[in-house]
């Protein structure tokens, strides 16, 4: 369920009510924070809060493709960042290496791909302002077949590392 | 059994005992040698043939631009991690873990310092590094420096880093993901890998602050 950590209540209340309204409108599925478009389902998109001067951040989520053919996450756009890119992260003999996936990330037919710490992520490059804990950041994800899918990334504490349902 | 035979056996036995003593002495010598080279017991990984000078020489600046050298960090053991503020994954994970370990150590948690060194001189100002480490809700010393200062410090700590361009003219940075543990004298103790279990990391930190 959506829950906001301790922030000045006044500042977050309208957002919270809006989120509740959206939840009710969407029929209140078991995993509240998810977005669907055609055969794609985006589960729990989240990011970490950032500091002043920290001009980039990572975004994580699960993408499920219930369709008959593979799709690809190629990138996206967001008001808050200059660019949204898809990156891989691998450990190579104790060295962390990140690479932009210029051809996108394949989401196999009938499969789920987790973008999570230690694996894939989207990069918000050129952040125009810091991401604040508790806010929902609108991002449009671009898929090769499904086209544009509007989602909202929930900004978590910097110490957040994802939950067990990110592993699904 | 005659007394001569008994004596001969005793001599052989004594010889064997001396051989055993020799082997044991050699073993102790090898162990001491390894420890002198900077390796340490259990848990955390050792650097192959780790020289004692790891992290012994660097000159960086803190969030206020004030110089920081190994001398300034002496007095408290420290856990040092190299990264950059725009790092989306391993840096926040490593620093969050260290903050978590500190909490788990309870009253002993403040017996060591957590140090973050930004290798991104092209982007992270000293103040940026300061604002970044403040996110973690526990005191973390944020350091950076000029391109040359960072290169020298990374070399001293055997840390690898390399800029990798991405589309749009920006770049990301590949870098070592281990945390270096230094004792209160500023001598290298051991490494915590990014794969270190919580149990092993806590045991290593307890030894470090003991």
The total tally of domains of chain A equals 1
Largest sheet of chain A: 7 strands, mixed, barrel
Name the strands of the widest sheet of chain A in spatial order: 2-3-9-5-4-10-11
**CATH level 4 superfamily of chain A:** PCu(A)C copper chaperone
- The helix/strand series of chain B, from N terminus to C terminus, equals HEEHEHEHEHEEEEH
* Total number of distinct structural domains of chain B: 1
Number of helices of chain B: 6
Overall average pLDDT of chain A: 85
Give a verbal description of the structure.
The complex is a heterodimer of chains A (168) and B (210). A seven-stranded mixed β-barrel of chain A has the order 2-3-9-5-4-10-11. Chain A is 10% helix and 49% strand. Chain A is globular and about 45 Å long. Chain A contains one helix and eleven strands, in the order αβββββββββββ. The longest helix of chain A is centred in the first third of the chain and has 17 residues, at 9-25. Chain A has a single domain (34-159), classed as Immunoglobulin-like (Sandwich), CATH 2.60.40.1890. Chain A is mostly beta strands and 168 residues long. Chain B has 210 residues and is of the alpha/beta class. Chain B has a single domain (60-209), classed as Glutaredoxin. Chain B is built from six helices and nine strands; from the N terminus they run H-E-E-H-E-H-E-H-E-H-E-E-E-E-H. In chain B, strand 1 (60-61) and strand 2 form a beta hairpin. The A-B interface holds A 48-59, 82-83, 85, 87, 89, 91, 94-100, 102, 117-118, 121, 123, 125-126, 158-159, 161 and B 85-86, 88-90, 92-93, 95-96, 99-100, 123-125, 127-128, 131-132, 134-137, 160, 164, 166-168, 170, 172, 174-178, 193-194.
Task: List the SSEs and their pairings.
The complex is a heterodimer of chains A (168) and B (210).
Chain A: H1 9-25, E1 34-37, E2 40-48, E3 56-65, E4 71-78, E5 81-92, E6 95-100, E7 105-107, E8 112-115, E9 120-127, E10 136-143, E11 147-156
Parallel strand pairs in A: 2-11
Antiparallel strand pairs in A: 1-2, 2-3, 3-8, 3-9, 4-5, 4-7, 4-10, 5-6, 5-9, 10-11
Chain B: H1 3-36, E1 60-61, E2 67-68, H2 70-73, E3 78-83, H3 90-104, E4 113-118, H4 126-134, E5 140-143, H5 147-156, E6 161-165, E7 171-176, E8 179-182, E9 188-192, H6 198-209
Parallel strand pairs in B: 3-4, 4-5
Antiparallel strand pairs in B: 1-2, 3-8, 6-7, 8-9
